[in-house]
Amino acid sequence: MQTIRVDTPSAQYEVHAGSDLLESLAPRIAHAVGRLPRRVFVLTSEPIWALWGQTFCASFAEEPIALFLAPGERHKTLASVERLARQMAQAGADRGSLLIAFGGGIVGDVGGFLAAVYMRGIPYVQVPTTLLAQVDSSVGGKTGVNLPEGKNMLGSFHQPRAVFADIGVLGTLSDRELRAGLMESVKAGIIRDRLLVRFMEDHAAEVLARDAKALERTIAASIRMKAGVVNKDERESGLRMILNFGHTVGHALERVTRYRVLLHGEAIGWGMVAALAVARRRGTINQRQMDRLESLIYQYGPLPPLKLRAARIVSATGGDKKNVGGVRRFVLPVGVGDAGVVEDVSDPELKSAVEYMLARAAEVEG
Ligand SMILES: NC(=O)c1ccc[n+]([C@@H]2O[C@H](COP(=O)([O-])OP(=O)(O)OC[C@H]3O[C@@H](n4cnc5c(N)ncnc54)[C@H](O)[C@@H]3O)[C@@H](O)[C@H]2O)c1
Fold first, then answer.
1. How does pLDDT run across 40-64, given as a tens digit for each residue?
2. Atom of ligand 1 minimally distant from the CA of 169
3. 105 C-alpha vs ligand 1 centroid, how far in Å?
4. Which residue, by CA, sits nearest to atom 13 of ligand 1?
5. Among 46, 109, 178, 320, which residue has the most ligand 1 atoms within 8 Å of its CB, making it the best to mutate?
6. Whether 61 contacts 27, CB under 8 Å
């Protein structure tokens, strides 16, 4: 097991990544929060509970009260939060109660937000069950729900008391979800960890075969990268923006395909290809680095084909929540393992990078 410390102005906690954490969750959580409160709630979804509920409950003297969120982005709403909060209130939840978010990024984001607003904030613990949630969304305290007008438009920073990323639960995750989540690890390496890039290049077969050691190393390095960034910039006023590498075009791809075609990580995979193309044109990476990093992305593919027009994607980047005052922020890799944020990528420059990405996507199809 590897333990990574998050240390921000608002909270300090540990993120644990390793095997067999789920079986011994209760004492681990008790240790992290001081002692288990009288009322412990677990927010999860039916499919995850059916697969892992028994193992989850094994170490609790008294079973946590289970609350359920139906799978899918369309349930990541304020209406779900209200329904869940009412269930908690009816079950006697008070300020001293604890909420455990046990699921993928959707359960984690909704659970975190519920904990942030229930009685103005109660403690919560993240037990992420997808690779994406383990390496990214469960760490850093961003919580929230969607509006019809956009994703994650309502939210709050609310740090968990602890995170337990059990590698065993990934055993039931589909290959497609696993690969999509690994795109966030590829991202972590490209922007801040050269050694992770090298490791993922050299051990792709083991990682994709879910070898426990290879996964633990990849997951822990990704978490370490994210924690290091969050420790320096909890509220995304500067450095934390580099975590959005691949996200300007990635979010645009998700938006124009109405969140129905691509998994988040797949959109980020293509978004990283476009960002690499901008970086190559600007000379922040050389051709050898471009080839190397692009190959790494495809090693963890296949990414789905894209049947879209470049102009449509470029115009969709205008609606990104990360833009401030109409300025489009863009994260560019600088060499391998470093990145910076620029605000002056013009539409034609972006369009040519998106055309490059679409040409590569057409090769996938052909
Ligand atoms: N808060 C943050 O910092 C942050 C960062 C990145 C992404 N996100 C959010 O995360 C969400 C996406 O998360 P996700 O990719 O985990 O998707 P998800 O939560 O929808 O989970 C993907 C699917 O996998 C299933 N699943 C989960 N764990 C499983 C397991 N162990 N075995 C079998 N099936 C399992 C789920 O039921 C679901 O159908 C988005 O809403 C995104 O906005 C948040």
1. 999 999 999 999 999 999 999 999 9
2. 31
3. 4
4. 105
5. 109
6. no
60 touches 102 (CB < 8 A): no
CA distances from residue 301 to 176, 182, 232, 277 in whole angstroms, order as listed: 9, 9, 32, 18
Phi, psi of 148 (to 5 degrees): -55, -25
> Which residues contact ligand 1 via a Cβ below 6 A?
45, 47-48, 51, 71, 73, 76, 103-107, 109, 129-130, 132-133, 136-137, 140, 142, 151-152, 169, 172-173, 177, 264
**pLDDT above 70 (res 324):** no
**CA atoms lying within 13 Å on the CB side of residue 358:** 16
CA distance 214 to 334: 27
Crossing angle for the helix pair 175-192 and 264-282, to the nearest 10 degrees: 30
Closest-lying ligand 1 atom to the alpha carbon of residue 144: 1
CA of 172 to the centre of ligand 1 (A): 13
| Distance (Å) from CA 274 to ligand 1 centroid | 24
What whole-number distance in Å separates Cα of residue 211 and Cα of residue 202? 14
Q: How far is the CA of 344 from the centre of ligand 1 (A)?
A: 32
Torsion of CA 300, 305, 311, 312, to 10 degrees: -100
Apex CA 131: angle with CA 39 and CA 227, to 5°?
75
Query: Contact 147/153 with Cβ under 8 angstroms?
Result: yes
Enter the pTM of the model: 0.95
Give dist(CA 249, CA 270) in Å, integer: 8
Instruction: Read off the pLDDT of each residue in 30-35 and give the average, rounded to a whole number.
Output: 95
